[in-house]
Description:
The protein is α+β, with helices and mostly antiparallel strands. It has a single domain, classed as 2-Layer Sandwich (HIT family, subunit A), CATH 3.30.428. Strand 2 (21-26) and strand 3 form a beta hairpin. The protein has three helices and five strands.
Amino acid sequence: MFELHPRLAADTAPIAELALSSLRLMEDAEIPWLILVPRRLNITELHHLPAADRVELGDEMTRAAQALETLFHPDKINIGALGNLVPQLHIHVVARFRRDRAWPGPVWGAGLPQAYEPAAREARCRLIATVIGA
């Protein structure tokens, strides 16, 4: 049975369940940041997914990026799969702005994330779910 890694559960809020992945919002109110977690057991690397799952994940990454672009009009969309601290395969889809705290460097480890107010988190999750069509 699929279980979300405890760190991902602690650092993110659920948005929607897509065909392959759980779509989650990173707990950082300053930077619109989505996480896609394929619901597959013991997968740590993108190339470990079956071909059909890789295609579906690509479509889900595109939908997530398009939703961020539509809603926030970022200067750049960053997509990455690091997994150095959390081995469970997960994909970061991040809307970046020239004015954000980490620009032009990576967001990982760049200052402390700003927590959402609960109502703002819920509203953002609903908005993203609506735009992504989930």
